[in-house]
Amino acid sequence: MRQKAGEKLFQVVLVVLLSLLCLTVLYPFVYMLAISLNEGADAAKGGVYLIPRTFTLINYEIVLGNEVIRHAYLVTIARTIVGTVAGLSVTLLVAFGLSYKGLPMRRTILGYILITMLFSGGLVPFYIQLNNLGLLNTFWVYILPGMFSVWNMFVMLKFIQGIPEALIESAELDGASPPRVLWQIVVPLSKPMLAALGLFTAVGHWNDWFAGAFFVSDQSLIPVQTFLQQLLSASDISAVLGSNTNQEALARSQMQNITLMSIKMAVVMASALPILCVYPFLQKYFVKGVLVGSVKG
Predict the structure, then answer these.
(1) Quick one: which of 5, 13, 93, 281 has the most CB atoms within 10 Å?
(2) What total of structural domains would you count in the chain?
């Protein structure tokens, strides 16, 4: 079918606009990458926009050689893995249980869960509750409060309800228990949905700086995003390098060529790249899961 001139023009304009939008999104990352790979003193003169003018890896050597930053990365990685697995598991179990229409007080439970999504007690009561539970200044303050997501539960519930009832009924007639139905029927059919929600959950854990800033005072427990937030508000490079800086790296770099801005850009890039690398592996599941959720929602 031949396209009209107006349709071709519209497609050209649409491609140009989307290309410009992509460039506006990508340029900040390219700029930060160029600054992080450039000598700090040289970058401070200006003129570095797309590619480094004086290439160096010393900024990354300092960032990755700092013990505080390395430990913050370990905390973030552990939090992301444990929090994502625990959150998906608990939320999936609740959604699977509520998918049974014969569950006693099912509507009451759904209404109560919905209320918790629409209304919140506020930050101060939440802080007091965490304190009473003994979660403040512990690693579990990152995990336990976020183990159940109401929004994710409703998405999972809709997806599970979309699975043909004949599959579940035939399995139950063959003697399959609810746990077996969950792990052998529901979970295999829900991979796209779980991948999409798992990606959202993992990104949320990885990017969260709030919990580490307000619920944790022990520096050995702060995640990398909280460290980055502290770094962005720092005014002295010594607050970043501390006493654990790789002295050999500093000797090679010539201290005068290092600036706070170049270190900040290196930390930003080092904290953003790992989670960005996850997207290509989950892309096919992610797109399919979003489409299924839009159709069944």
Answers:
(1) 93
(2) 1
CB 83 within 8 A of CB 205: yes
Taking CB atoms within 8 Å and a gap of at least 24, the contacts of 212-220 are 212/142, 214/127, 215/127, 215/130, 215/135, 215/136, 215/137, 215/141, 216/136, 216/137, 216/138, 216/141, 217/137, 218/137, 219/68, 220/71
Distance CA 184, CA 144 (A): 27
Domain coverage including residue 188: 65-296
DSSP state of 237: T
The domain that contains 179 carries what CATH number? 1.10.3720.10
Q: What is the pLDDT of residues 135-173, one digit of tens each?
A: 999 999 999 998 998 999 998 888 888 888 888 888 888
Confidence category of residue 47, pLDDT binned at 50, 70, 90: confident
**Residue 221 domain flag:** yes
Residue matched to tokens 């005014």: 235
Q: What is the pTM of this model?
A: 0.78
Query: Has residue 53 been placed in a domain?
Result: no
Say whether pLDDT at 287 is over 70.
no
Domain presence at residue 260: yes
